[in-house]
Amino acid sequence: MTDNTPVDATITIRIIKNFEYRTVKNVVLHNIKLDTMTVGELKKIIIEKINVTPAFKPFRNVDYGILNNSQNLIINLENDDWILNDGNASLASCNIENETEFSFFNREAYEIYKSHPDVMKWE
């Protein structure tokens, strides 16, 4: 993060309920403190949004836990290094900047989809 990067950021989270059906809904979070907020705290905020926002009611039956920093439209299958595993790391230390986009999903569903990414159940 450079000195001119804002500390308060706006980030977009793609909540992925289902990979095969491409069931995705975005949530935009404002005023995220990149220098003090940890990956674990961000996950808690996202889960809270899912649990209290009426539009996310169909998304509540998934055990989310993986946060992935990817520029791919839905998910980057080639590089698991983008997965943010360290819940204690600050967002700034993970090179997160203003207007970063993440995917948030279930790890088991991701591994199944990763083994057969060409399976599309809605086509």
Automatic annotation (TrEMBL):
Pfam families: DUF2340. It comes from the Eukaryota. SUPFAM superfamilies: Ubiquitin-like (SSF54236). Belongs to the UPF0538 family. This is 24466_t:CDS:1.
